[in-house]
């Protein structure tokens, strides 16, 4: 599904140049649940944002669903992103001015799904995430756990083939964190490919493979036994 080859990205400011991703080659197969670990500043988010087509890169190649992403116009990147990728972030990234229902509906609007279908899918997602009773509320009226459930509902409502999560449990207590991790495991067993950035080895334990980054380089890669047992 994902092939990165000798991929690099350097941020340049007036004072410093930081190579956040340094010559990374990586393959992610359909159906994998990959965890990306490593210390703060090692390039995890940059790599995830490149994979998620939110960010461009300088050199190397990235083929996503067999199509080369290097040099793609933002418009085309956005189209690939909206059709195939769901995102979950540490800070939930919900839109404050939209209700729970409207936040979850957004990816379906972007993908031009008709209103009647949207309603069915949003209600299904709200039920699955146990948030239906909050459909008319706004993000600020919800607890952190509830906000992340809305964010996960938004990530899955379009049934994306790839779900990217950046420290999804970072602002949650362990009960809510576990709910999110169990849900991602469930989505994975139903066929979604998942890539999750985390610095928690507990969270990484839910994945099927763990890579470790340091200074923008992959320094470790291991298959995770635990997930294999679940499957
Ligand atoms: P991580 O997610 O592992 O904490 P990041 O991918 O956020 O790491 O950052 C990797 C490196 O790139 C860090 O040194 C960071 O300071 C730098 N960096 C990230 N984003 C920017 C940016 N927009 N401008 C300049 N430097 C950046
Ligand atoms: P959950 O675990 O179901 O995500 P909590 O147990 O944290 O939610 O919250 C308990 C109740 O308090 C919920 O009904 C929630 O809507 C309400 N609540 C929590 N935080 C807020 C807030 N900032 N404003 C309004 N209601 C809140």
Give me a quick take on this structure.
With 231 residues, the protein is of the alpha/beta class. The protein contains 8 helices and 10 strands.
Report what the structure shows:
This protein has helices at residues 44-51, 74-84, 100-110, 115-128, 144-156, 174-189, 201-204, 225-230, and strands spanning 2-12, 17-28, 33-37, 59-64, 67-68, 85-89, 162-166, 193-197, 209-214, 217-223. The protein starts with a strand and ends with a helix. The strands form 2 sheets. A 6-stranded mixed beta sheet has the order 6-7-8-3-9-10, sandwiched between helices. Strands 2-1-4-5 form a 4-stranded antiparallel beta sheet, with helices on one face. It has one domain (2-230): Rossmann fold. It has 231 residues and is of the alpha/beta class. A hairpin with a 2-residue loop joins strand 4 and strand 5. Residues 2-231 form the ABC transporter domain. This is ATP-binding cassette domain-containing protein.
Average pLDDT: 94
Name of the level-1 CATH class: Alpha Beta
Radius of gyration: 18 Å
Number of strands: 10
Sheet with the most strands? Answer: 6 strands, mixed
Order of helices and strands: EEEHEEHEHHHEHEHEEH
The best one-word shape is: globular
């Amino acid at each position: 599904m994902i092939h990165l080859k000798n991929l690099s990205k350097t941020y340049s400011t007036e004072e410093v140049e930081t190579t956040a991703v340094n010559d990374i080659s990586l393959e992610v197969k359909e159906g994998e649940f990959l965890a990306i670990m490593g210390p703060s500043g090692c390039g995890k988010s940059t790599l995830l944002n490149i994979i998620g087509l939110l960010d461009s890169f300088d050199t190397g190649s990235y083929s996503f669903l067999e199509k080369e992403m290097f040099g793609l116009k933002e418009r085309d990147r956005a189209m690939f992103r909206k059709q195939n990728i769901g995102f979950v972030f540490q800070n939930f990234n919900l839109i404050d001015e939209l209700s729970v229902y409207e936040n979850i509906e957004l990816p379906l609007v972007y993908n031009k799904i008709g209103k009647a279908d949207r309603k069915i899918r949003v209600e299904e997602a709200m039920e699955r995430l146990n948030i239906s009773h909050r459909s008319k509320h706004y993000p600020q009226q919800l607890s952190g756990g509830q906000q992340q459930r809305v964010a996960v509902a938004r990530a899955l409502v379009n049934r994306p083939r790839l779900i990217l999560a950046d420290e999804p449990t970072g602002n949650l207590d362990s009960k809510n964190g576990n709910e999110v991790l169990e849900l991602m495991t469930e989505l994975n067993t139903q066929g979604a490919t998942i890539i999750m950035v985390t610095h928690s080895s507990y969270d990484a334990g839910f994945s099927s493979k763990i890579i470790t980054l340091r200074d923008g380089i992959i320094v470790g890669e291991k298959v995770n036994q635990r997930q294999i047992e679940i499957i």
